[in-house]
Amino acid sequence: MPEVRAVHRMTPAKPTHASSVRLTRTADVWKSLGRFGDGVRIGVIDTGVDYRHADFGGGSFPNAKVIGGHDFAGDAYTGKPGSLPEPDGDPLDCEGHGTHVAGIAAGFGVNSDGSTYRGSYDSVDLDAMTIGPGAAPRALLYALKVFGCKGSTNLIAKALDWALDPNGDGDFSDRLDVVNLSLGTDFAAADDPDSLFVRKLVEHGVVVVAAAGNGGDLYDVAGNPANAPEAISVASSRDEYQVLDGLEAAGRQWPGQYSINYEQPVDLTAPVTRLSSNVDGCQPISESLTGKIVWLEWDDNDATRACGSAARTDNAWKAGAAGVLLPTTLPVFAAKIAGNAHIPAFQLTADASRALRPALEAGTLTVHLNSAWKGSQPTFTPSIGDTLSTFSSRSRSSISVSAPGDMISSAEAGTASRGVALSGTSMASPHVAGIAALLREKHPKWTVAEIKAALMNTASGVVRSDSGLREAPMRVGAGRVDALAALSTDVVALGDASFGTVEVSAPLLASRTVRLMNKGTETVRLKAHYEPITAVPGASFQVTAPYVVLPAGGSASVTVRLRIANPAALRKSPDPTISLEDGRQFLAEASGLLLFTGDRSLRVPVYAAPKPVSRLTATAGRVTGHGLDQQDYQARMTVLQLGAHSGRLPDCGPDRQDDCAVNRTARGGDLRYVGATATTDLLAFGVATWNTWANLGTTTQPEVRFSVGGKDFVTKAVKQTDADDNVTADIWFARTVVAGTDEVVDEQPLNGFDGSVDTNVFDSDVVVLPVSRSLLPSGPVTYTVGMRSGYTPPGDSDGFVDLAPQAVFNYEVTVPSLSTVVHPGDQVPAGSLVLFHHNATGNRALVR
């Protein structure tokens, strides 16, 4: 299911997301302010809701909690080509995701005896409940089912349209108050059609809350609809409480996690042994393990780990082991373990690993594995409180806040009253949707922008990485949400303090304005200052007129300035929380918070990604203009033989359905020039587009089909992926396969260099795709360049935004290297297409 990272079944009578509502002070809102979401209508666009569950009151549809909705999909719908929706009026959940999400947002709660909680929420005993109440326990739910029992969906727009006009009469007065979207597409563009629907809802007063995504620490992975500027995008952080699996040893139960590939019931008691050599089990095991559980050492570093849990579990099984035990040193599991389908595997927590190791070494350790203990171990680990969930997506400036989303317990569909623990930004988003409902109840006339500002301005929870470093707005927005502060504020700071990508060729002073509004009845005095979190040498933020006096009902503006006095001082400094292993590409990003202190405490995220640019051209065979030669940045040039030119695509419209651009993102695939060149070792294809692209290798993908010596090949710009085609690293390749097959014959870094050398891969409109010449027959190369995209025209039939005319390259141009460092006065090799990689947008490609 989209956005879910882990699943654990709950046993009855265990505390649930009580810890989350305490951490975010939502329970304090119930007790201190008496706000429970009464009458506020929340739409859950998801897999439906199991309204029969006690968390929603049980019974038939509609009931007192799930008072409306619609099934747009039908159970058999998968979202795949050829799968047609079969809508009906009953949005019953057959998958489980939407039920869990709805419970987090607005469930009644379930008593320890499995009955619906009907008591008061201002004095509720959270620890006595099987399933705790949702964030807005008296809000009303609408189940808008857009998924079948499995698969994906193309029906989100229909559900958003319904949320705006439930009875379809064109009068939006019956619109829902809040919509939650715990779904999305990684790397999708902010101008995706679904994001445009989000804008429409917000314009008419609907608060839209969306999961930021589970793409992890990858640049720009946070996709739509959460990256719509009007949405409230929610990242996932942890609280101290988690529900883990259990095993029994030394007379007590110990927490950990069972492997996911062993699906049979487990009830196994056996002695634990360790190997005399090959202690991690990554090589075939020669020792007999019959009837034993084997302890296999585990390296928590992904980069140095010799093998995964599947390979070592296979080796143990082949040696006769009855099961596998794995330790860890991490305070929280970075991911689930796979294991295999033949024997159970269990990974102990760090504390359990340390506690049981002496018995292992003494040869006295025996453990009991039992599947009944899945989800049986509530654990409290203070060190993980307000740390970032590793799966939570990285953005640039679209994330609004974070909320607990790791191992969150809520209603389990199809069980009548049981709960299940899930992890994902899907679980963080409805928590914020529920808080937004509390805000809407208190402030029915506030605009959506004011509701969003109240949530962000008061998100005072500081979120850190596992290593203790403070996370920046690119991962957590303004910070971890604080419901009591959000509902208590009467001053909001409106405006966007993101400067985005900033190309710098001369001293620069740019500004953004934040507008303060006092919606209370007293004069408020504030002082503004900037608090840095990540820094870029050479760039600074300044606050003008930092002292503000806001009379009751008054407003004032504060200006944030980005100052770059000397572009030569800019350095490519990474966010300190990221890893640069294996040649990762990265951005230099300056970020922090605009803080207001005094009579109120408010915050606004600030962001900029400055990069120096050259202003080079070729005149009379020489490089001329303003160069770029400083630490981390050097102007680079690639010379090619022009193969083809392509004009600008027109906008798509009612009378133009093909060979057109549907949005700005599609224009990143609008080809301008294509060409080819060669070095001693490489053949390379150059691509220039009319606009900068979004997410090269994912949303926008250059593809070259070429023939040489009677053989056909395809070269694409790709990112590093796993076996399931999920992007795993910010590492770009030109991957070449034999045409018509998946046989990879070559991979070369784009532009000829990995991320240790800056060739301006991000936010560019030129790129070079190399291929090793040693793999190719000799002879002329016939090639065609196309740009694949997720945003092709309505009448498209080939998956390309644009295709350039066919061209032939006969090695007329050879150059010493690709992406060559150049300075004014250097000679330009022969060639009719010159790419200056570090020039400003629109000026990187020159035809001569």
From TrEMBL:
GO terms for biological process: proteolysis. Residues 37-465 form the Peptidase S8/S53 domain. The lineage of its organism: Bacteria, Bacillati, Actinomycetota, Actinomycetes, Pseudonocardiales. This is S8 family serine peptidase. Coiled coil: none annotated. GO terms for molecular function: serine-type endopeptidase activity. InterPro entries: Peptidase_S8/S53_dom (IPR000209), Peptidase_S8/S53_dom_sf (IPR036852), Peptidase_S8_Asp-AS (IPR023827), Peptidase_S8_His-AS (IPR022398), Peptidase_S8_Ser-AS (IPR023828), Peptidase_S8_subtilisin-like (IPR050131), Peptidase_S8_subtilisin-rel (IPR015500), S8_Vpr-like (IPR034213). Keywords: Hydrolase, Protease, Serine protease. Pfam families: Peptidase_S8 (PF00082). Belongs to the peptidase S8 family. The active site is at residues 46, 97, 426.
